[in-house]
Amino acid sequence: MPKPSRDALRTPEGAIALRACALAGLALLLGLLALLPGESALRGLRVVPEATRVSGERFPLELHNGAARTSVATPPRRIASVAVTADEILADFAISERIVGVSRFADDPRASSAVGRFPSRITRLHGEAESIVSLSPDFTIVSGYTHAERVALLESAGSAVFRLGRPQSFAAIDETIRRLGVALGARERADALRAQIEERLETVARSVAGRPRPRVLFLSWAGYTSGPGTLLDEMIGRAGGYNVARDAGIEGTMPLSLELALSLRPEAVLTTGGAPGSADSEPGLRRDPRWSQVEAVRSGRLFALDSALALSTSHHAARAVAQIAAWLHPESGP
What we know:
There is one protein chain. The longest helix is centred in the first third of the chain and has 23 residues, at 12-34. α7 packs antiparallel against α8 (187-208) and α8 packs parallel to α13 (317-328). By secondary structure, the protein is of the alpha/beta class. The N and C termini lie far apart (63 Å). The protein folds into two domains: 53-197, Nitrogenase molybdenum iron protein domain (Rossmann fold, 3-Layer(aba) Sandwich); 211-328, Nitrogenase molybdenum iron protein domain (Rossmann fold). The protein contains 13 helices and 14 strands. The strands form four sheets. A five-stranded parallel sheet has the order 6-5-4-7-8, with helices on both faces. A four-stranded parallel sheet has the order 11-9-13-14. Residues 1-47 and 274-280 have low confidence and may be disordered. β4 (79-81), α4 (84-93) and β5 form a beta-alpha-beta unit. 38% of the residues lie in helices and 17% in strands.
């Protein structure tokens, strides 16, 4: 088979072909990972290092990234973030005068609950180490998936690095906010956010206590669902529902076949997308005759959670719990 020329690849047809090949390769990889028993596609990769630990409650502090230690003598003055979770937390720490960069997703309402919170003078970062270093940060917050080489480059340029990991429980979110509050010299604001989460969750818990738990299926636009070991599973449980992914033995986040989804007999389906009732919020469930006999469809209990809330691993996840509870138990008024 002849090898395409570079000029051919620059054409619209060539670009489409390249994208198709890339998507096919990704689908193959995810398919192979899905074969791993009890592992999600992402968990199966086992690429998420431990989140940064903080030694001390007052400055000077030490950040621990694995075996590496970094001393932080005073509250950071030039903070950069390349993680949406950090963007959302920083927005409510009210320290914008110390922030030099946030992730490019901070302004995307599909991914962030911090839209409009950062002035235009703050650089939007795409994650390239060189662009971060150009801002001369003294403290950079990265995600759990940031490459070790990129972290090393940031550290060699003089920036302390705080790795978030990926919180998959409210206890982990609470600890992330606490650690960041200590590391950034924003303990009072951190404690206020932690108290906000606790109060919101306790309010929901009181409102759904003793009520029947409907069978809930979470179905992402890409056909994935989430079981034990994920924040979404805890959200559903705290909102007074029962996550039917548990009946299928699903752990973590995994693709879900239509046949299995139907067999789980959900009484409510939670999706991500636009407003409830819009075409993209239901993934064709109402129009698909194969779903017509499912209780969730018959009763009209198809709910589209704002994608930024569904994806959030910050304090905003507690807002998602309150929203889900209001849908599942409208009579409770949480």
